[in-house]
Amino acid sequence: MLLPRQKTPNLMLETLDHGQFNLSSDVSERGVVICYYRGLHCPLCANQLKDFQNHVEEFAKRGVTCIAISCDGEERTRQMADKVGAGNLQFGYGLSLAKAREWGLYISSSRGKTSIGIEEPALFSEPGVFLVSPDQSLYYGSVQTMPFARPQFSELLGALDFAINHNYPARGEYVGEV
Question: Which domains does the chain have, with CATH numbers?
Answer without folding.
Answer: 12-166 (3.40.30.10)
